[in-house]
Amino acid sequence: MKKTLNIAHRGLSGLYPENTMLAFEKAIEVGCDGIEIDVQLTKDGYAVICHDEELNRTTTGKGFIKDHMLEELMQLDAGIKFGEKFKGLRIPTFDEFLEYVSDKDLLINIEIKNSIIDYENIEKIIYALISKHHIEDKVIISSFNHYSIRRCIRLARNIKTGLLYGDCIFEPYNYVQMVGANALHPEYNSVTKEIVERSHDNNLEVNIYTVNDEKDMKKMIDLGVDAIITNYPNLLKELL
Fold first, then answer.
1. N or C: which end of the chain has fewer CB within 10 A?
2. Which parts of the chain span the membrane according to its record (predicted)?
3. Tens of pLDDT, residues 16-44
């Protein structure tokens, strides 16, 4: 059985401000196998890394990312709400993140955040930047918007895709094949031994989110999942 991969959810987000370059650097320092990020678009069409559609929770900004120009977003603080000592961190652009990871041996899980706001052409913008940095073989694209994943598959079949879902879908391995994706990205509570085995029988990966408790991590490792997405890649590293 191959090793379960340790994917840092928004970087080492349990200990550092999520989706910041610092959180990504610290995740690499503790020995993660990959990094999961969330990509959205600014008003002027730039791809940036931030989980929420709104800026309020993680930054000093307010309102939706889609209503702000990139230049405006670059003025916001993306660290201070996590702690005073992180003051001065900012929202990374997708381009600068890819520049940073392009020479590293990491799997990059790019979640397209378009299930609430269906950003026009976001798939094309993301794929153009992947191509620019020549990392097609290092990425997997995921989304809760499965229509978006279909658009991704049409753009480039050589780039792996995964379907995010949070419910107990009946025979998800069959559904994933119908859509044409390469992997299931389920919420970990919905995963069973049968789902993992049947997925593997059909050459599908099972990459689960978001597992932060050691007991649950051990359970998922025992199930033989392909990757665990966690806020604490430092803890998972010790278990693996």
1. N
2. none
3. 999 999 999 999 999 999 999 999 999 99
